[in-house]
Amino acid sequence: ELGKRAPRWIRDNEVTMCMKCKEPFNALTRRRHHCRACGHVVCWKCSDYKAHLEYDGNKLNKVCKDCYHVIIGCTDSEEKKRKGILEIESAEVSGNSVICSFLQYMEKSKPWQKAWCVIPKQEALVLYMYGAPQDVKALATIPLLGYTVDDTPRSADLPHSFKLTQSKSVHSFAADNEELKQKWLKVIHLAVKGETPECQSE
């Protein structure tokens, strides 16, 4: 269907990095562009291709490298390199997850920041953290097995927070409300013991 139908555009605020090369966007050097064939948000380097799109009266349109190769019928074998652990697309795991939502996250003495957190069904013992729901690469992963869960926030913490600790590493999370916090804790309490949680519907 590529190029035959107008794509669903992924909104700018759903990504923090180019969906092709995974470079983070910034105001000056990496501005956001949309591929007119697949609707993905890409940087200028990755949108520097043009192809005739059927849905737009066969006019030349800006497309990303991947769509360009498909539309002109050329395959790029090096693109099929094995993906690293962080290169699992958020949309891919969020759609097939035990639980996913935004949580506030804090590491060491850094300030709290918002992260899209996902525990995928196929890896129910790993917590993936993304900058936004449509990012194509995780910022970090936490293998939950063996962590200790502390769900009593201290006065300096956000109200609905909990901590995961293992030897020297401490990860602090906070949900927007108590109900969401309890949903996460239900899944995490099982995962730290190596048990696979049942699906938590959002």
UniProtKB/TrEMBL annotation:
Residue ranges of every copy of the PH domain listed in the record: 96-193
Superkingdom assignment: Eukaryota
GO MF term set: guanyl-nucleotide exchange factor activity; zinc ion binding
GO cellular component, one term: cytoskeleton
Pfam families per UniProt: FYVE (PF01363), PH (PF00169)
Main location (coarse class): cytoplasm
GO term, biological process aspect, one: cytoskeleton organization
PROSITE patterns: PH_DOMAIN (PS50003), ZF_BBOX (PS50119), ZF_FYVE (PS50178)
Limits of the B box-type domain: 13-63
Keyword set, alphabetical order: Cytoplasm, Cytoskeleton, Guanine-nucleotide releasing factor, Metal-binding, Phosphoprotein, Repeat, Zinc, Zinc-finger
Protein name as annotated: FGD4 protein
Organism, as annotated: Ptilonorhynchus violaceus (Satin bowerbird)
Encoding gene, per UniProt annotation: Fgd4_0
